[in-house]
């Protein structure tokens, strides 16, 4: 896939779904320095897979599926392997920061940061469900992304959201 | 949009620009292509050398060249096996870009050492053959005739050729590895340059 058409399609896809890439990288990379590697991996997988997208599901659902699978594979592999070149990346290496958003307050930014921390503290299976539900995916769509049955998604998600709400309640009280 | 305030906060969060991601994506592809190009487990032109050894070992009436055939077949088999293993690993596990570049650099280092030591082994072989072939007339017992020069010269050239090829490959791989390391550092620097100050996690 390297024609101008496919490049334009990829650019448009990236503009529309960059939020998914950003959120999953922040949730699944253990440190900010790892986010760059994970983002690159997701971008490469999206580029490779985009040619096979046949509108069998919503574009956002499909993007979630590709990015989540990539992130989970990446985490599994990263746990097993250490860097072999010994090239320690400088501490400043990071992903591009988000664009400032009008009306976005420091309090909201702090709350969002704590939300990310709370989501990362959840068990891996709950984390996936919570991330998808925070973006308003339906049970059916979550089931398509994760491969779980809708009933299972419903039960597990209710439990995970309850846990998240309790943890965030504590955070709100702190703030 | 869901009325849950957490969902609203999540969905309204500021995001990096698409251009920034596009830049990372382009650089990733460029690096991956380079990693693929460099990760060749030895130069393809060397396959001709190994192939020639096999042919020589099989065709020569002398048993002296049989080990060459075994050796050549062994190296070719190892190269094919290693390439297959790598493809399988990539297919099964997926592959991170930085991981692939790291892996390519490691393999270049291993290959470079292998070819360097092979070159070192063939150097005394070539020198010994040269000394023996062009030994003084008093030792040889008769003057060198044109046939001696041609036939013996061919063997000497063969051994020196092999030595030169191994050392040349080792040198090329050393240069490639240096370039790879520089580009990996440049990639990380580029990522750093895209960054704006952000709170450390």
Give a structural overview.
The complex is a heterodimer of chains A (about 180) and B (about 200). Chain A has about 180 residues and is an all-alpha fold. Helix content of chain A is about 70%, strand content about 0%. Chain A is globular and about 55 Å long. Chain A starts with a helix and ends with a helix. In chain A, about 30% of the residues are buried. With about 200 residues, chain B is mainly alpha-helical. Chain B has seven helices and no strands. In chain B, helix 2 (about 20-40) packs parallel to helix 5 (about 95-135), helix 2 (about 20-40) runs antiparallel to helix 7 and helix 3 packs antiparallel against helix 4. The longest helix of chain B is centred in the last third of the chain and has 49 residues, at about 145-195. Chain B is elongated, with a radius of gyration of 27 Å. At the A-B interface, helix 1, helix 2, helix 3, helix 4 and helix 7 of A face helix 1, helix 2, helix 5 and helix 7 of B.
Describe the structure concisely:
The complex is a heterodimer of chains A (175) and B (201). Chain A has helices spanning 4-28, 32-50, 59-80, 106-121, 124-134, 139-146, 150-174.
Order of helices and strands of chain B: HHHHHHH
Shape of chain B: elongated
Give the overall shape of chain A, derived from the CA principal axes: globular
Give helix and strand order of chain A, one letter per element, not per position: HHHHHHH
The poorly predicted ranges of chain A are 83-94
CATH topology of the largest domain in chain A: Rna Polymerase Sigma Factor, Chain: A
**What's the CATH class of the largest domain in chain A, please?**
Mainly Alpha
Looking at CATH, the homologous superfamily of the largest domain in chain A is: RNA polymerase sigma factor, region 2, helix turn helix motif
Question: In this structure, how is the largest beta sheet of chain B organized?
Answer: none
What is the number of domains of chain B? Answer: 1
Global mean pLDDT of chain B = 68
Number of helices of chain B: 7
Tally of alpha and pi helices of chain A: 7
Fraction of helical residues of chain A: over 70%
Give the averaged pLDDT of chain A, no decimals. 81
The assembly state of the depicted protein chains is: heterodimer
Biggest sheet overview of chain A? none
């Amino acid at each position: 896939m390297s024609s101008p058409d496919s490049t334009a399609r990829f650019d448009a896809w990236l503009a529309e779904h960059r939020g998914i890439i950003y959120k999953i990288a922040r949730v699944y990379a253990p440190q900010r320095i790892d986010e760059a590697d994970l983002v690159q991996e997701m971008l490469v997988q999206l580029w490779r897979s985009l040619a096979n997208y046949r509108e069998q599901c919503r574009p956002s659902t499909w993007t979630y599926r590709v990015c989540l699978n990539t992130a989970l594979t990446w985490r599994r592999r990263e746990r097993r392997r250490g860097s072999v070149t010994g090239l320690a990346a400088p501490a400043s290496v990071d992903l591009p920061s988000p664009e400032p958003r009008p009306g976005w307050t420091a309090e909201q930014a702090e709350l969002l940061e704590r939300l990310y921390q709370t989501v990362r503290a959840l068990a891996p299976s709950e984390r996936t469900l919570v991330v998808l539900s925070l973006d308003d995916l339906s049970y059916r769509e979550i089931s398509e992304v994760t491969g779980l049955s809708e009933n299972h998604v419903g039960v597990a998600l209710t439990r995970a959201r309850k846990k998240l709400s309790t943890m965030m309640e504590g955070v709100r009280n702190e703030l | 949009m869901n009325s849950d305030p957490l969902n609203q906060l999540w969905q309204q969060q500021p995001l990096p620009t698409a251009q920034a991601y596009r830049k990372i994506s382009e650089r990733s592809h460029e690096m991956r292509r380079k990693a693929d190009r460099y990760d060749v487990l030895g130069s393809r032109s060397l396959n001709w050398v190994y192939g020639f050894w096999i042919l020589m070992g099989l065709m020569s009436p002398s048993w002296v060249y049989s080990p060459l055939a075994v050796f050549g077949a062994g190296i070719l088999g190892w190269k094919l096996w290693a390439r297959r293993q790598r493809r399988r690993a990539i297919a099964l596990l997926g592959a991170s870009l930085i991981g692939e570049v790291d892996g390519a650099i490691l393999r270049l280092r291993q290959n470079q050492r292998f070819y360097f030591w092979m070159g070192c082994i063939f150097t005394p072989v070539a020198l010994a053959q040269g000394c023996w072939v062009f030994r003084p007339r008093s030792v040889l017992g008769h003057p060198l005739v044109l046939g001696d020069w041609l036939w013996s010269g061919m063997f000497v050239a063969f051994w020196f050729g092999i030595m030169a090829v191994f050392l040349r490959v080792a040198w090329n791989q050393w240069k490639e590895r240096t370039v790879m390391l520089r580009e990996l550092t440049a990639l990380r620097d580029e990522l750093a340059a895209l960054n704006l100050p952000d709170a450390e996690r």
